[in-house]
Amino acid sequence: MTERTAISPTRQEDFPEWYQQVIAAADLAENSEVRGCMIIKPWGYAIWERMQRELDRRIKAAGHQNAYFPLFIPLSFLEKEAEHVEGFAKECAVVTHHRLEAKEGRLVPGAPLAEPLVVRPTSETIIGAAFARWIQSYRDLPLRINQWANVVRWELRPRLFLRTSEFLWQEGHTAHQSAEEAEAEALRMLRLYEGFLREMLALPAMAGEKTPRERFPGAVRTLTLEVLVQDRKAIQAGTSHFLGQNFARANGITFLSPEGHQEHAWTTSWGVSTRLVGTLIMAHSDDNGLALPPRVAPTQIILLPLIRKEEERAAVEAACGRLLAELSEKSYAGEPLRVEIDARPLAGGAKNWEWVKKGVPLRVEIGPREVAAGTLSVSRRDWSPRERLALSEQQFVANVEQTLAEMQQGFWERALAFQKSHTRRIGSREEFLEFFTPKDSENPEIHGGFAEVPWAGDTALEDKIHEEQKVTIRCIPLEQEPASGTCPFSGRPAKHRVLFGKAY
Amino acid sequence: MTERTAISPTRQEDFPEWYQQVIAAADLAENSEVRGCMIIKPWGYAIWERMQRELDRRIKAAGHQNAYFPLFIPLSFLEKEAEHVEGFAKECAVVTHHRLEAKEGRLVPGAPLAEPLVVRPTSETIIGAAFARWIQSYRDLPLRINQWANVVRWELRPRLFLRTSEFLWQEGHTAHQSAEEAEAEALRMLRLYEGFLREMLALPAMAGEKTPRERFPGAVRTLTLEVLVQDRKAIQAGTSHFLGQNFARANGITFLSPEGHQEHAWTTSWGVSTRLVGTLIMAHSDDNGLALPPRVAPTQIILLPLIRKEEERAAVEAACGRLLAELSEKSYAGEPLRVEIDARPLAGGAKNWEWVKKGVPLRVEIGPREVAAGTLSVSRRDWSPRERLALSEQQFVANVEQTLAEMQQGFWERALAFQKSHTRRIGSREEFLEFFTPKDSENPEIHGGFAEVPWAGDTALEDKIHEEQKVTIRCIPLEQEPASGTCPFSGRPAKHRVLFGKAY
User: Fold this and answer.
1) What is the largest CA-CA distance in chain A?
2) Confidence class of residue A1 from pLDDT cuts 50, 70 and 90?
3) Chain B residues inside the 8 Å CB shell of A150
4) CATH code given to domain A423-501
């Protein structure tokens, strides 16, 4: 018999709807009245803040400095790089006026701007213009800048966190003396993201290069981290671009070389966004709601006092207070434990389920029974929601760091096993077809994922496969064996192995 | 004989130009190609991040949760509160299209929006709409939300940090059951800002209420912190608004009271912005550039190795490395010391002046002479730039926390003495005229500041005084003696004392 789950439908029944319901049940975000723009609610924002703080620390440690550039980009700036503007033109929010005026009792746009402004979809062009002023000589290089900002890309089919018209992100921009140095920087930042995903979010990612079809508009090379989530689709969780001299030429970023020549700089850009929150949800959550790896959980331990009668209050509250004080002295992964007491006058069951759905790693119930027995009733988010372990306070406190570390490791191992079990080497078109569009629909859950295929095709062939199968090349993995085998689509000897998958 | 100063002109010679030059010399910010929008450069942004981190900590400790709301506000939302829209209509950036299209070889705004969107000048209306959904019963109250965001108010006369078309800020929004509770919240947050200004930025502020003329559009009461800066003008450094039920009515924020009635909530909003960086500069800097109180300095101590010959390098670098390690163990005001080594191959004098102009509290030079003598050459930003004190490493390290605390206190005392010496009780129109527009221009620096005046006037009288004297009522101070005296402008018995001043 199956247990009743907190989220309905389940992942199996309807994954997209399950995702919406997990977000609603954990109170992470909601749609606003502005089409495609979400409201990130406190619990969702706290998760983003955890990501932000740790990423910011790592980016600074890697030698980058934060700065802030204008929200608005003059239309003429965007036009400077042809591929770039073509890539973003269809998604741009355009500011055309700078005041409102009354007209027939209604407000309408007033003073028109001489030149329309675009709300930044990304900042290569406006930051490039600043770099052109800041960089004079090779002594000014490398220049490494990062920005935390909101960006806007108009979305016709928005989905909370994964695809919203406005989203929050960081975008790094660097300039270098040589192509080699810039390429190394783009790779270094991809690896930084990869380490962050692994250590903080317990997310295994396939690191690879995009084919020309999926490249960032204006880039020479785009590197990507592709995460397989539980419906076996891939999410692009972070990208890092080697921009060659394209934006340097468009913006006039030149420097005097040590040999006395004026040269164009070599630039990179790289970013991750609030999309990471969506990726985290889709990768780790279950049919009882959100599940947070301890390192990214805003609250790691929630203490739930169970008070049915007033005369029980003093003893229970004292026990909770003492436990909170003891836990606050402890740390995990180099930071003080994040512990809260939920003292709201609600029934214990309702409170317990709320924190299950919010994904808090450890729940500790303390009622008169526990006080009398000198124990705690401990539940873990990676156990069944009804499971409880009676532990002495001393046992719990002494082992809490290790427990959280084990849970973090558990999230990683489950996600890695999932990725491995849904990555298949495929050598023929028939296998490929069967993998993504199985005729046998009895076991649909064993189909789909990453198909690793020997490849010698081009963009036209990729377009054709996408049209027929709705799959695309997610990346050309960086970790490659020497090329071997035949490309099943072109019949030519493979240049490398690529990963096909369905994409978010 | 006067010393040559690093900044020219001096404060005396041309204060507005001095301000621009301090910003340029410290590399804090610059104008962008988008009119009124600034680029906040790494050193300026690091100061803002210091402010942000500490304010965020205090706001969270006061019980508020961070969230994020859309950048765009539908025009119809803004129209709901009549005073509000009137106050902001002239400053709104308006988005009218959501794509770009090619037309005769040029890009032009493409698909028009059904309803224009305004780039948020402040978020009462869009957050109010969310509050209306989130609040059902008195049990949902108080609701306390804070947002860190960029906002846009189109500026025709922009000035870096103080008045820019786009700026960064936090805006708090709360909803309460009663007028009393909401008023108390508005006051509590003003006091939180006041404590932050005092303890972190060493800025004394006059806390008071705005007259109707200067009130936030849509507010019932606006509380303000007014800081007097070195040209004896006042800067509004933070505001907190009691909004009554105005926005609750406009947005339909209602709740079921404990007695079972549907009632409109009582709301507040409050904010501080990157304007604080400008205030900090104008209050504390001198003719040698920026001067940072230690608590807000991104780097508190800069170590400057002086190496003229290669054979000196090893010993000097070893001494610097050892000092860095020792200082990194120490803390000040509850945080590890922020220490950097400037190892760039520049002349010692140039490096020293650069850090003077950047405002770093302590500079420590270490060259072969210091290594041989076993001393350090220590300079303080609150001493003359050429002054140096030879200290043993041990002496310096043992006293560094106390030194920084003394410096922080010194910034506060100087600023407080300045404010006090430029606040004058004034009882007649003649005195008032002489205070703000002295006939004797030989000592202009002793004139102007805050004029504390018994007041019984109204908005029309304020308008008239503003027209004639270019001064306005900055606030009605919260700390008031019982009303006494006669208003020199209306001739009526005073209702209270107000502070007049010239405003930024």
Assistant:
1) 84
2) very low
3) 71, 149-150
4) 3.30.110.30
